Amino acid sequence: MVSIDEDAYEVIVVGSGGGLIGAYVAAARGLRTLVVEKTGRVGGTMAYSGAGLWFPGSAPLKRAGLADDIENVRAYLRDIVADPSREALQDAYLTAGPRLIDELEKNPWFRSFIHGPVPDYFTSAPGASSTGHTIFPPPLELAELKEQAALVRRSLPTERWGFDEGPVVSGGRALAGRALAAFLETGNGTLRLNTALENLLVEDGRVVGIEAVSDGERVRIRATRGVILAAGGFEHDRELREKHQPPLTGEWSNGVRANTGDALRAGIAAGADTDLLDEAWFVAGLVQPDGRPVFHTGTRGGIWVNGAGERFVNETRPYDQVGHEILRLHHSTEVSHIPAHWIFDQRLMDRDSFGGPPDEPVRPEWLESGALKKADTLEELAQLVGVPFDALSRTVEEFNGYARTGVDERFHRGESVWDQMFHHIIPFAADPRQNFPAKPETEWPNPLLLPIDTPPFYVATIVPSDIGTKGGLRTDERARVLRPDGRPVAGLYATGNTAAAMSGRVYPGAGTPIGSSLAFGYLAVLDIHGASA
Q1: Confidence class of residue 442 from pLDDT cuts 50, 70 and 90?
Q2: In angstroms, rounded to a whole number, what is the distance separating the alpha carbons of residues 190 and 77?
Q3: Which end of the chain is less congested by CB atoms within 10 angstroms, N or C?
Q4: pLDDT digits over 16-30, tens only?
Q5: Radius of gyration of the chain from Cα atoms?
Q6: Per-residue pLDDT tens for 63-110?
């Protein structure tokens, strides 16, 4: 075991996704800060994302002319979360987000965040906003990072399919790159890659550092002020998923594969309490030609049916709600909902294409791999996926009636502000950083309800996926990790998916996961530094 100089660091941050911003905040305050990252690149699952931040009341919203009433937002959170034990966390989050953005925008590396109009996900709840509270980092030219550009995790499409990102990156990659540059520029920040947390060092009940394996060597590194766990969730730990979230095993998760609950286990070993271990940021996943799903944000046509050939959900409903509904029905009914089958026809294929830009034909590998199947008749399609043809025929006939009237009487697709966003955009599964403008629909009254009547017919596979688990170590409004009796574990903080979510079992709006990581990382640093939000 190699011990690092005992006075070398005041703060250790485990994880380099959203935790990298907290590390910058600490280093900018003069605290000697070490970031340890399990993999060879920074960014974590954040690098796969659009890096939306759900920060009501923040300066970018005001610049966009959106006057947030924080009391309305607070009422919205209280209503949808419906858990008084999380109200202090919600209040801390609402205070911290805008103040953090004010601080970041003073640094030239972060520049100005911008508002992106994404409706809140519970559009009918009191206080919900039709324009949303989500802000995004500006794009980044990789050349600005110089040699540091190679340290930033690639996007999910690049890692999986070799997608060419070009010289300018956006979303999570841009935010990670900006945070890395700002952190190292302080002169107080050190980055240690390929360093996996194994244990926390505890002396007299206080966490004083970490034990890790760094490039194959066991090291003991001390932190004189505090350790912040920001190492993601346990989405790719099969044992924990099967224990807390059956039937899921982690193979369908969109989280970074290195997220196997190391920080969760270390925190528990140090005496921490846990919460929400049965929860994740669930999403519907569209199975790709490589056999693994990708986070599916919205559906513009066709229907999803279960093993009985019956439709069971508004397919355009916010993705977290759809993911939860698939799992709820799996556990509460005798009918198979895993996988679900996305049925559509040539009419939709001609209008929107599939799995790519709308003006390009579907890529051959979709059909060659079997990820997309095709049949000349609905009866043949039913046989391909093993659902009863009579039931599927009735389901399609009912749906076609809704298409003619423009009203989905069963599941109300196209009625909410969220749904109507998909009148105008087509999510591109091969590059989640961008959407494509949709072709105007002139023939049918509801662009999201096209009849399924034009052969050939197609079917793709939908499974419950996630963008990370959201249960973890229980924390307070200062991001301090708590013991089962409610006392803090001295010297230990947690944020992001290492901590149990302030939003409980719901997903309030785009950018809540990363927003939570940044906000509570900020609050952790303020507590370590001796300030208050």
Answers
A1: confident
A2: 37
A3: N
A4: 999 999 999 999 999
A5: 23
A6: 999 978 899 999 999 999 999 999 999 999 999 999 999 999 999 999
- Token readout for 526 is 């303020």
**pLDDT value of position 434:** 59
pLDDT band at 439 (very low <50, low <70, confident <90, very high): confident
CA 61 to chain centroid: 21
Calpha distance 319→331 (Å, rounded): 19
Read out DSSP for 458-524?
Answer: EEEEEEEEEEEE--EE-B-TT-EEE-TTS-EEEEEEE-GGGB--TTTT---STTHHHHHHHHHHHHH
Please determine, for residue 504, whether its predicted confidence score (pLDDT) is greater than 50. yes
- CA separation for the pair 69, 62 (Å, rounded): 11
Q: What is the length of the chain? A: 533
Note if the bond before 247 is cis, omega within 30 degrees: yes
Quick check: 55 pLDDT over 80? yes
| 236 φ/ψ sector (left φ>0, alpha ψ -120 to 50, else beta) | alpha
Quick check: 57 and 95 in contact, CB under 8 A? no
Q: Are 33 and 221 in contact (CB under 8 A)?
A: no
Of 33, 47, 37, which is closest to residue 178 (Cα–Cα)? Answer: 47
Q: To 10 degrees, what angle do helices 512-529 and 87-104 make?
A: 80
To which H or E segment does residue 2 belong?
Answer: strand 2-3
Q: Is the peptide bond before 339 cis (omega within 30 degrees of 0)?
A: yes
Longest CA–CA separation in the chain, Å: 73
Q: How far apart are CA 219 and CA 197, in angstroms?
A: 10
d(CA 186, CA 8): 16
**Percent of the chain residues past pLDDT 90, beyond the cut:** 89
Is the CB of residue 196 less than 8 Å from the CB of residue 262?
Answer: yes
Contacts of 448 (CB under 8 A, 6+ apart): 299, 300, 301, 316, 413, 414, 419, 422, 423
Q: Please calculate the CA angle 288-292-297 and round it to the nearest 5 degrees.
A: 65
Helix, strand, coil percent content, the chain, rounded in steps of 5: 35, 20, 45
C-alpha to C-alpha distance for 275 and 271, rounded to whole angstroms:
14
Please say if the pLDDT value at position 533 is more than 50. Answer: no
Q: Is the separation of the CB atoms in 105 and 88 below 8 Å?
A: no
